[in-house]
Amino acid sequence: MKFGMSGKGLRALSPRLCGAVSLVAVMVAVMVGLGAKPVAAYPYYAQAAYENPREATGRIVCANCHLAAKPVQLELPHSVKPDTVFEAVVKVPYDLNTQQVLGDGSKGGLNVGAVLVLPEGFKIAPEDRIPEEMKEKVGDTYYQPYSDDKENIVLVGPVPGEEYQEIVFPVLAPDPSKDKNVSFLKYAVHAGGNRGRGQLYPTGAKSNNARYDAPASGQITAITEVEPNDDEGFPGGYKLEIATDKGTTVDEVVPFGPQLLVKAGQTVTAGQPLTNDPNMGGFGQMDGEIVLQDPRRIQWLLAFFAAITVTQILFVLKKKQIEKVQAAEGI
Fold this sequence. Notes:
Layout: H1 7-13, H2 25-32, H3 43-49, E1 73-75, E2 79-80, E3 85-91, E4 100-101, E5 107-108, E6 111-117, E7 123-124, H4 132-138, E8 144-147, E9 150-160, E10 166-172, E11 186-195, E12 218-226, E13 237-243, E14 249-255, E15 267-268, E16 282-292, H5 295-328
Parallel strand pairs: 2-16
Antiparallel strand pairs: 1-3, 3-10, 4-5, 6-9, 6-11, 7-10, 8-9, 11-16, 12-13, 12-15, 13-14
Helix pairs in contact: 2-3
């Protein structure tokens, strides 16, 4: 397990993501990247654009770049004691046989990522506090805090989907006796999970993992191949020239990845799909609750149960005694 902002961690998290328009860099990076290959994300832009990855509406901003909706699961214990380590598990299920369009237009496996929004005071446990059994589940997972002052918001990814369909977060519960900002209450926990690359870049431009539509009505007069541009991260593709009814020409550049559905000489209408939708991934989120339990409440509850039990036993014994007396007196 890895923590903090080490160089190795940054390299793992720095792949291509949908930062600014979306957010959760690392998590979001999960996917505008190049699949199982090294990806180029935009964590700095994303984290700088949003102070909090969860909007007032409850939506996690990763959905701004990862447009398809997919399921995600969050598993939490019902309650935890202060200053203890527990597991929060985010599951990102998908068909492992699925392949996505990578940044160069080829096909490859999906990466996954997750964001966990914990209550304030909760954070990833230090390595020396994690039980050995839990360490085996955590493995080499790298946990990235959303920002220096938000250790309760944790990002993971992008990581290979075939190895991380379940992402385990070892969480340290706060101690109200040491942190006066924390109380023994029920708290909300929010999780987001993603598989596959995003459909938008930080600039708002589409990636090659999105459907392309006709920008105007008219006839496609030519389809020419466009050479790759490594400096701009463009994998190459096609330029479609559309002659409109107004006598103007509108160009639409489609990168390698999505498949063309049209050909030269064909008439199209504005908004008509020029390609298929190659996206095989998507983002989902789930909310949960956890109780920070005061051990003294449990102790008093056990004492109450014990008192009730003793009282019942004494009541039964007294009743038996009265029955014996009544029997002896012939009542």
